[in-house]
């Protein structure tokens, strides 16, 4: 099949999933065309059947806001025609499903039918899309997609609760390429990060308020009172400054490393002992899954879809959002005993196997085939 994928090219989970999906489809000999405003960050290999088409938005002084949706739908029309694309798959409803629908309609005028699969990722539904300013347009573009998927049962329930949805929503969970992880473990350089007796605690995100970054600092503060430990904070975003300030105020800044955005998260996770994800909301928690496949147990909140990924008492522990005391106690329970830690590490990996690329990508292919047959 020839598949066009629209996504955000940044470090957000939706862009990562879309990129990994495109790479997996290309390995299965499908022809994949990424259409977005920048080469996706995880797309570091362009192969004969992976293509990237940049959406450029020319700046014009009249526009207070540059019309990205217009440029995207025009680029979609051109690319779909030029490369005879079979299926359009848009990730993150805003504004991709809306622009995709416009492209579909423009192509229909020329007698070209293109089925559109829309994947809902989380904040496009729970935070941004639910805002009254966007809600009618988001509802419309979901209802007018040919197939709609969500990355967890929890996100499906949220979508049905928050919007007037007339379409079936199929749950296709996020996934991970386990075989690729196995081969990249060779250069794990733990000694560069911490002393042998120190435990390494890690968090990776876009440092937005929804991630409750200061809870992470509080939990780590409690951990380091009980054992030698380091906290590795990976990512960039609005909450980073306040987290750094809090580390200074608590007198733990020497034990915390802020990395900024990284393309080498497997290298960081390979020497991590525990992953913290105390988010206010999380449709899935891809970062937790990436930790688990690297044998890193997870202390998380029980928000949204996280319980579908992190298995309480097996791959880690879950607590109510904001229950810093319980999260700290559970973290210490896992970290203070080598035997317990090793059991959780192995369990985390086993739980991650449920989300292997080979289990999940065929589900998308089956949906594309169904979308093609709709016409
Ligand atoms: O806020 C983020 O974590 C980024 C956001 C995105 O759309 O890029 O992530 C959402 O999609 C990810 C991939 O499906 C999920 O793993 C995240 O849980 C989800 N984030 C939220 O729901 C807050």
UniProtKB/TrEMBL annotation:
Residues 196-350 form the Glycosyl transferase family domain. GO terms for molecular function: glycosyltransferase activity. One of its GO terms (biological process) is bacillithiol biosynthetic process. Coiled coil: none annotated. It comes from Aquimarina muelleri. It comes from the Bacteria. Pfam families: Glyco_transf_4, Glycos_transf_1. Residues 11-179 form the Glycosyltransferase subfamily 4-like N-terminal domain. This is N-acetyl-alpha-D-glucosaminyl L-malate synthase BshA.
């Amino acid at each position: 099949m020839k598949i066009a994928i629209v996504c955000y090219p940044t470090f957000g989970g939706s862009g990562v999933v879309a990129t990994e999906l495109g790479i997996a489809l290309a390995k299965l000999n499908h022809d994949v065309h990424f259409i977005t405003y920048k080469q996706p960050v995880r797309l570091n290999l362009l192969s004969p059947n992976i293509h990237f088409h940049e959406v450029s938005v020319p700046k014009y002084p009249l526009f207070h806001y540059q019309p990205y949706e217009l440029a995207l739908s025009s680029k979609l029309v051109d690319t779909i025609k030029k490369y005879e694309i079979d299926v359009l798959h848009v990730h993150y409803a805003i504004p991709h499903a809306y622009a995709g629908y416009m492209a579909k309609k423009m192509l229909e005028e020329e007698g070209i039918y293109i089925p559109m699969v829309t994947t809902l990722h989380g904040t496009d539904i729970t935070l941004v899309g639910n805002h009254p300013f966007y809600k009618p347009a988001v509802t419309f573009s979901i209802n007018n997609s040919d197939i709609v998927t969500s990355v967890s049962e929890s996100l499906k329930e949220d979508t049905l609760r928050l919007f007037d949805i007339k379409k079936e929503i199929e749950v296709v969970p996020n996934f991970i390429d386990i075989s690729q992880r196995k081969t990249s473990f060779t250069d794990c350089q733990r000694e560069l990060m911490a002393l042998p007796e120190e435990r390494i605690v890690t968090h990776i995100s876009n440092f937005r308020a929804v991630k409750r970054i200061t809870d992470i600092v509080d939990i780590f503060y409690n951990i380091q009172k009980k054992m030698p430990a380091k906290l590795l904070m990976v990512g960039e975003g609005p909450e980073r400054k306040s987290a750094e300030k809090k580390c200074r105020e608590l007198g733990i800044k020497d034990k915390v490393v802020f990395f900024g955005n990284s393309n080498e998260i497997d290298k960081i996770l390979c020497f991590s002992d525990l992953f913290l994800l105390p988010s206010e909301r999380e449709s899935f928690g891809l970062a937790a899954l990436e930790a688990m496949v690297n044998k890193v147990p997870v202390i998380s909140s029980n928000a949204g879809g996280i319980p579908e990924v992190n298995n309480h008492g097996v791959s880690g522990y879950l607590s109510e959002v904001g229950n810093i005391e319980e999260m700290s106690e559970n973290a210490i329970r896992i970290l203070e005993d080598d035997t317990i830690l090793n059991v959780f590490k192995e369990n985390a990996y086993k739980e991650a196997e449920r989300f292997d690329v080979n289990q999940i990508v065929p589900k998308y292919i089956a949906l594309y085939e169904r979308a093609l047959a709709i016409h």
